[in-house]
Design a protein that fits this description.
Chain lengths: ~625, ~625
C-alpha cells in the first residue's frame, strides 16, 4: 500500500445498487497522484462516445490526493469530476472543508460513481463499509437540513457530508457540490451530475489513519507554516480580510470586473471590499482541515430578512460576480445572494455571470421586463439579483432558461445576446480581467474546463514570490500586460504546477514554497520525488484533460477569448487597453508547443511517451 | 559576484597580444552555468559564418563551472571547446585533473581565446595576472618536458599546466588537450585548435578561494561520498579496477567493440580486462581534484622498450579502441599505444578507431602494405598499431593522411573505404556498441559533437540507479535493446542531465544522486534551484549546441548511424542482432519532439522561449 494514500478506490453503480473496491498499484498512484488527474483518467478510460453528461453512463468522481487529510496546511481539499453538463467536456471542480479528510479516514482515496438510482439516495461510508440509503426525505431540502437529518438518522454528529443542493436536483447546469455546508467544488456543474444520478449526498465517517512515511518532517513543515501564519510572515492579508482583500487594488488597477466585464473599475468598490466586510458584517473566520490561515468568512446581517451565518460568507469570486460584476455595491445583497447560492447549491461565479448577462440583455433591450417575469433587472438592482438566483436554483419562470448557463441561454434568446454571454468552452468567466492580466487571458482560453482561475496564473507571480521563479531558474520580471514567449513560459510552468496541486490535492492559496512542497510530498509518500516530477505530473494532468476534451469534439477553435477582451475599455485606469489578437494567437500556439502539442493543440505522441501515458494516443 | 563562481571571464586575443576581463551578471552564470553551455554561447555569439576551425577567428574556450574546484567529488573537470576541426561543428571535450581547480583559484571561470600568435606562445595566469609568453623552446617537445620546463622557467612546482601535444602542433584533427599530463579533454580535436593558434600551453597558479554559500553542507556531502567510497558502498568496481572493470561483462553480452565494430565479442577479452590489468601491470592509482575514487590507472611494463608510468595508464575507452577494436589482446602494446597518445597528444578513441579503420582497409585489400609505409596492418598487430600512432601524431608517411580522421581519410582513399570509416558527424565512435545498447545508438546519432559517450545513456540506468528513475517518477525497467518512446524518454532525461553535468561542470562517474547534486548546487551557489532547473539547464546546453551545428550547415540527415549497425552480427552473443531502421528513425523523431525540435530536428521558437534563449532564434 503506497504511503500517503489509502490504496483503495470505491466503485459504485447506482443503477445496479452495487459497490466494489479497486486497489491500484503504487505506480498508478505515483503517476496520477489523485484529484484532477484521476478524474481525467477515469473519464478517458470509461466514458462511451457521446456520453450524455446527465445520463447514467457518466462517471462522477470524488477524488483526493496524497496531501488530503494530512497535517499540512492546504490539505483540506478534494476534487469532484465528471463529463460536464455545462461545458460538454472536462468537468472538474475543487473545494475545501473537512469532508475529504474524513473520506480518507473512512478508507478510500476516491469514489467513482456510475449509473442512476431509481429514486433519491445517499451514500454512507464508515471505515470501509458502504451503504446506499434512501434519500427520499432529503430531496428538495436546503443543505443545512440535509446535513442535520443525515447526522440525526445515523446518530453521529461527527459525520461529514458532501451533497448537491436543490439546484443540483433541478439539473441547473452550473449547480455546485457542497462540502460541510460552506465549501464548494463549484465549477463545471458537478452538482447537476450528482442530481442526475439521484444522489443527494455522500456521508462519511472514519477512524483509520493513513500511513505517512516521515511524520516528523510533516509535523515540522506544518509547525513552521502555522507559526509563520500566526506571526504574520505568511498569508497575512488572506487571514485578515479573506480572499476579498485585493478588491481595492484591482479597482485601482482597472481589473475589477464590473457590469458584465464592460468596465474594470467600480465606483462602489470600497463598499464591497474585504476590509469593509471585516469592519461591518464579519462575525467569525473559518477554515479547512489543518489550515491555520482561516480565510473563510462568516457574516451576519439583518438585510434582506436576515442572512444566516451558518452558510459562511462571500469569497472574492462571489463579491465580484454578484457584486461589482452586477453593479451592486451592497454587502447585504451580496451576502443574501451568497446565502441563496450556498443553501440551494449554485456556483456563485457562473450564477453571478448569468445574472450580469441577463442584466446587460435587459439594459440593451435584448430581454424585456416581461421576459424576466417582471423583474427590473438593471445593473445595481440587488433585490432583483437575489430574486433571480432563487428562480434559477428552482428553475422557476425565466430561471428555467437561465439555469442552462449563459451560453445556452444566449443561443435561445437570439443573436443579439450572443456577445453578451461571457463564457469560454461554455463556462462563465471568473472574476479576473484578461485585459488587466494578459497571461491569465491565455489561461482562460486553453483551460480544459473552460474559463477557470484554478489552474491559471495571476501574472504578478514575480513580484509576489521569488520562489516561483528561483526553482525554475532565471526569469526576469515581466509586466502584467505582457504576452511574450517569456510570459507564456511562466504561464506554462505555473499552470502546470497548479494542475499538479489540483492532483496532489492541495490549496493554491497556502504559500508553500515549491521546495517545501517537494519536501512535503517526499515525507508523505517516501518517494524520492522532485520539482521535475511534480511539474511533469501537472503537465500530465493538463494533457489528460486536453485529450478528454478532444474525445468530446473540442479543438483549437474552442481555445478562444470573447470579443469583449479584444475591445478597448471606454473608461478607467485601463482606458483604451485591449489584448492584441495577433499577439494572443501567437502566445496560444507557443503554449501548445511548450506543452508538446501540435499547431492545432493536439498532444503529440512524443509528449504522451514522455509523460508515460502513451495509452492516450489510441483514443485520439 | 555569484557564489560558486569567480565572476570573471578572461579574454585573450593572440593576434593582438592583448587580454581583457569580462564580468557577466549573475543571471548569465545561472542561465549557462559553465562548461558546454558557455562553449556553445561564445561560439554562437562570436563566430563568423563559415569560420575556419583552424583559423584565427575560431574561439578556443576553456570553461569551468560552479562545481569546479570545490570539495565535492567529481569537481575536478573542465571543458575545452571550439568549432571542431574534426566534425566541422560543435567541438567540446571534457577532461579531469587539477588544472581547472587551479584556474579558478587563479581568478577566472573561463578563458576565451581568439586570434593566432605569430610564433609559439603559452599563457601564464597567476592570481588574476596574465602574461603571453614565448613557447619557442617548448614546440615539438613531449608533454612531460613541456610541463617541467614551464615550472622551471616560472620557478614554481605547484603550477598546473594544460597543453596540446605534438599532435596538436601538427594539426592532427583529433589531437587532444592534456591536463596535468594524464587527463585529457580528448574529443573533437581541441588540441589541433590550440596548435592552430600557436598556443602550446596554459599555465596557472592561484591562491584565491572562490566563495561558497554554505560550506558546511558542501563538506558534509563530500564527507559522506568519501566515506561511502572508502567503505565500498559506492563506486567499488571503479575504485578497484578503474573504468575497464566492465570489459568481461561487455564481452559476455556481445557489446565489446571488436575489430572495427565487426564483432561484439573478443577472444582476448580477459587478457585486457580491468582485473587483469590490476593483477599485472598496475603500479598505482591516481585521481582528480577532490575525488576519493582514484579510478585513474598508473601502469609500468618493460614491453615495447618500457612504458613510463608518468603518463598513467589506459582507460576503458583506450583498452577498447586500441585493444579489442584493433584485435589486440596485449596489455603491453595497449599501454605503449596509450603512452604515445598521451605524450604526443592524440585522442585515444579517435586514434584507435583510425587504426582499426586502416586495419580493416588492409585486410579487405583497400589499403596495401605499400600504402601503409610497409606496415603489415592486420588486426591484432600491436607493433604496427604502436608504429602507426606515432606516425599519425607526427604526420609522417601514411600518418599524414590518417591524421585527417577516418571520415576524411576514407573519402581520399576511395568508395570502398567509406563504409569502413565508423564516424558520425565526422567523429569516430567510442567504445560502446549500439547494437547492444540501442538507446545509445540514438545518442550517437543526435549528439552535437558526433559520436560521443559523454552525454549519452548506457541503457542499464534502471538497474544501476533507482535514483535516476525516482526523481523523474514512474519509469518501468526496459531491456537494453528497446527503442520505444519510453526508452527515448529515459534518453531524453538522462542525456539532458549529462549535458547539465558537462555545464555545471562535473564528472559523470561519481555516483551522486540527483537529489544530492541539487543539494550541492544549492550549497555552492545559494540558489534555490531544483532538478527541474538543472534538467532545463541541460536541455538548454543541448539546444545551444544543436543551434550552433545548424549554423555550420548540419541538419537531420547528419543524425545518422552507420550502416554497420543496421547489419546483423555474424557471430557471438548477439548473432543476428541489428537495430531496426524504422524503429530507429521513429525514435529519433520522438527525441526531436521531446526536445522541442521540429520534425527535421530544428529547435522551435517556443522551446527557445521556454529555455530563456530566444536570442538564438535570430541565428537560425
Amino acid at each position: 500500500m503506497p504511503k500517503g494514500f489509502v490504496g483503495k478506490v470505491l466503485r459504485v453503480d447506482l443503477t445496479e445498487g452495487t459497490t466494489w473496491v479497486e486497489e491500484p498499484p503504487e505506480s498508478w498512484y505515483r503517476t496520477y497522484l489523485g484529484g484532477s488527474a484521476v478524474v481525467a483518467y477515469y473519464l478517458l478510460k470509461e466514458l462511451p462516445e457521446n456520453c450524455d453528461p446527465l445520463g447514467p453512463d457518466n462517471r462522477l468522481i470524488f477524488a483526493t490526493g496524497p496531501f488530503t487529510g494530512t497535517p499540512l496546511a492546504g490539505s483540506g481539499r478534494n476534487n469532484v469530476g465528471a463529463k460536464s453538463p455545462l461545458n460538454g467536456g472536462f468537468g472538474d471542480a475543487q473545494g475545501g472543508g473537512f469532508w475529504m479528510a474524513e473520506l480518507k479516514k473512512a478508507g478510500f482515496d476516491h469514489i467513482v460513481i456510475q449509473g442512476r438510482a431509481e429514486s433519491p439516495v445517499y451514500l454512507w461510508i464508515k471505515d470501509g463499509e458502504v451503504a446506499i440509503r434512501d434519500a427520499g426525505q432529503l430531496w428538495g431540502k436546503e443543505t443545512k437540513e440535509v446535513e442535520d437529518r443525515i447526522r440525526e438518522e445515523l446518530g453521529d454528529e461527527r459525520i461529514r457530508v458532501t451533497q448537491c443542493g436543490v439546484a443540483g436536483e433541478n439539473l441547473v447546469r452550473y449547480a455546485c457540490v457542497i462540502n460541510d455546508l460552506t465549501h464548494f467544488p463549484g465549477r463545471t456543474g458537478m452538482g447537476a451530475v450528482m442530481g442526475s444520478k439521484n444522489l443527494r449526498a455522500v456521508a462519511v465517517r472514519g477512524t483509520q489513519n493513513v500511513e505517512i512515511d516521515d511524520m516528523d518532517t510533516v509535523r515540522e513543515l506544518a509547525r513552521r507554516m502555522s507559526q509563520e501564519v500566526n506571526d504574520g510572515t505568511r498569508a497575512a492579508s488572506l487571514k485578515e480580510h479573506g480572499t476579498a482583500g485585493g478588491v481595492m487594488g484591482l479597482d485601482a488597477g482597472g481589473g475589477l470586473p464590473t457590469r458584465n466585464f464592460q468596465f474594470g473599475d467600480f465606483e462602489g468598490a470600497e463598499k464591497i471590499s474585504g476590509p469593509t466586510m471585516t469592519d461591518t458584517i464579519l462575525v467569525d473566520r473559518e477554515t479547512c482541515h489543518a489550515c491555520p490561515i482561516f480565510c473563510k468568512r462568516v457574516v451576519k446581517t439583518d438585510a434582506y430578512g436576515g442572512v444566516d451565518p451558518i452558510y459562511g460568507g462571500p469569497e472574492y469570486e462571489t463579491i465580484g460576480s454578484i457584486g461589482s460584476n452586477c453593479g451592486i455595491d451592497d454587502l447585504g445583497a451580496i451576502s443574501k445572494g451568497n446565502e441563496i447560492c450556498n443553501k440551494l447549491g449554485l456556483d456563485t461565479i457562473s450564477a453571478g455571470m448569468v445574472v450580469s448577462f441577463a442584466m446587460e440583455c435587459f439594459e440593451r433591450g435584448v430581454l424585456s421586463k416581461d421576459d424576466l417575469d417582471g423583474l427590473e433587472l438593471n445593473f445595481g438592482n440587488g433585490e432583483a439579483m437575489v430574486a433571480l438566483l432563487e428562480k434559477i436554483a428552482r428553475r422557476e419562470g425565466v430561471g428555467d432558461l437561465l439555469a442552462e448557463g449563459a451560453a445556452r441561454a444566449a443561443r435561445a434568446i437570439g443573436p443579439q445576446a450572443l456577445e453578451l454571454a461571457l463564457t469560454i468552452k461554455g463556462q462563465e468567466i471568473p472574476m479576473h480581467e484578461p485585459r488587466y492580466k494578459h497571461g491569465l487571458g491565455i489561461g482562460y482560453a486553453v483551460s480544459p474546463t473552460g474559463a477557470d482561475h484554478c489552474h491559471n496564473i495571476h501574472d504578478t507571480v514575480y513580484e509576489n514570490s521569488a520562489d516561483a521563479v528561483n526553482v525554475f531558474g532565471v526569469i526576469d520580471p515581466l509586466p502584467i500586460d505582457d504576452l511574450s514567449g517569456e510570459k507564456v513560459r511562466v504561464f506554462y510552468y505555473e499552470s502546470n504546477w497548479k494542475h499538479m496541486l489540483n492532483s496532489a490535492v492541495s490549496c493554491q492559496f497556502v504559500p508553500w514554497t515549491k521546495r517545501e512542497y517537494v519536501d512535503g510530498m517526499r515525507a508523505l509518500t517516501g518517494w524520492d520525488t522532485s520539482v521535475h516530477e511534480l511539474m511533469k505530473a501537472g503537465e500530465r494532468t493538463a494533457t489528460l484533460a486536453r485529450a478528454f476534451n478532444m474525445t468530446c469534439g473540442f479543438d483549437d477553435r474552442d481555445d478562444e477569448l470573447n470579443d469583449r477582451f479584444f475591445t478597448a475599455f471606454s473608461r478607467g485606469p485601463l482606458e483604451g487597453k485591449v489584448i492584441d489578437r495577433g499577439t494572443f494567437n501567437k502566445a496560444r500556439v507557443t503554449y501548445y508547443h511548450m506543452m508538446g502539442w501540435d499547431d492545432l493543440g493536439r498532444p503529440t505522441s512524443s509528449r504522451l511517451d514522455e509523460l508515460g501515458i502513451d495509452w492516450v494516443a489510441d483514443l485520439l
